Amino acid sequence: MSRLETKFLNKLGDQWQGATPGFCVQAYHRGKKIVDIEVGETFEIYDWASVTKIVFTTTALMFRHDEKVLSLNDKVERWVSWFPENSWQRVRDLLNHSAGMTWWKPYYKDLIKKVGPTTSPEDAWEIFQQLLRKSVIKDFKKSGAVRPEKSVYSDLDFFLLGVTLESVSGTTLYTVWDEVRERTGLKNTDFLRGNKPKGARSRYAPTEDCAWRKKVLQGEVHDQNTWALRGVAPHAGLFGPIDDLSQWGLLLRDGMRGKKSKRFASPETVKLFTRRSLPRKKGDWALGFSMPSKEGASAGPLFSMDSVGHLGFSGTSLWYDPKRDLLVTILSNRIHPSVENAGIRTLRPLIHTLIAEQL
Questions:
Q1: Structural domains for the chain
Q2: pLDDT at position 148 over 80
């Protein structure tokens, strides 16, 4: 164990206890690994939850942007055939959550009535789009035609981006993911198709003791809508080890620093997507990526305002600070056994601060 890691653990002490059963953390400074620690009860594979949004969907959209088949200024209705005509929403508005969509809806309650254990993720996605269309059009009649004053973080934005990805790519969501996985080299990260684990369930970090599914979830996705979609979705559902998440973060780092790579999007596209896209008063978003708020930032007070990353509900996160050239990835199962445990809100910024202050 390095001197930095020892200092980190000494300062952390028992402050992590009660926030999560355990966590894995890795940090890279100037591209060199400086922290690789497991604390408490840890597992090989974690439910990445909404970190899926940047690793899969945002990455795939960057690829399409590079290919010049998709423009950030494309109207949503160009790629989502049923989206209201003459609407103002563009692809960029979905990416920075300023499209006026509802933040979340329990589609799974209706979807599980229409799918079963043998339904493929592709068929479930087709059925789901009927529900999505109905709800979006209904909401649009109420307020969707009005530009919101502030961005609202919304899974529905990424559902629409998923439809867009299929349309612009001419193939299925999972095929698009397979392309992203192959290109970025995330060989140990995947969706759990059919909600079935790959190998022993004991490899997977357990999450909620779910009243709805009447069991502790392990080796199946926590997000209800993704589960009803049979495990594959544009907003959540990836499972993988921390090495893969850090590997993806290093590709992001290289792109932001101007390094070209066949494994990732062009530096020009990466810089475009990771640049602040909204006035602060409207929201702390780049395109697909979250950015720190002035107060209460999840990456702590030492990460610069130019940092980009994303959180996952299950207790996962990735943050990269281009000014410090510091990447920090965290995997935890803080929602085991209950989603009511919000201790990660204090622990996460503490972890980032304890690492950053050593530099």
A1: 3-356 (3.40.710.10)
A2: yes
